[in-house]
Specification:
mainly alpha; 184 residues
Length: 184
């Protein structure tokens, strides 16, 4: 974190953005989503697409963890409103992912399913297995909550296989819990 602090003071915008994003990821992992959200916001509107995509994902996650639906809605609308060339596909997929989560929370299953599927399609095309598995799990959890276990099982199976391959134990546990609640 000392190196990140040095980078945050750099005169180079790319270095500052990279360090702000790295710190946002770290503080998010330490359970400080409000700080992560603030750091990520400083990068999202910038011109560095590499840092911006990671900062956007962290900002959405932080807003979700804070139950800041208004903030999350603004983040989603920000990307939805960008011209086609201004948002890289992974940002659009994250917007779809969190729009799906938000719609599911609000009971709008049609929108939730549509946005989850859009996110999954993009992550699959990009070859982002972890992000794809996250979306599949979240979509599967939503279907389980709605009593649609048959539709959830293929999503949970694919997510579980990916998380197992990646050795993402906490995510594997979440898949197991979803299955337990649904198929017990």
């Amino acid at each position: 974190m000392d190196l990140v602090a040095l980078g945050l003071a750099s005169s180079d915008t790319q270095v500052r953005n990279s360090c702000a994003t790295a710190k946002a990821i770290a503080v998010q992992a330490f359970g400080r989503p409000a700080e992560a959200l603030e750091l990520a916001h400083s990068v999202i509107g910038g011109q560095d697409p590499g840092s911006r995509r990671y900062a956007y994902a962290e900002a959405c996650l932080a807003a979700w963890r804070l139950d800041a639906e208004t903030e999350l809605g603004e983040l989603i609308r920000y990307v939805d409103g960008l011209p086609a060339g201004d948002a890289i596909p992974s940002m659009r997929a994250q917007a779809d992912r969190f729009a799906g989560l938000l719609a599911a929370r609000r009971g709008d299953d049609v929108t939730g399913i549509k946005r989850f599927r859009q996110a999954a399609d993009v992550f699959r095309q990009l070859g982002y297995p972890f992000e794809l598995a996250q979306v599949l799990l979240e979509h599967g959890e939503m279907l389980c909550e709605r009593g649609a276990a048959d539709g959830a099982e293929p999503l949970l199976a694919e997510a579980g296989a990916t998380f197992a391959e990646l050795r993402a134990e906490p995510w594997l546990e979440r898949v197991a819990k979803a299955r337990e609640r649904t198929f017990a």
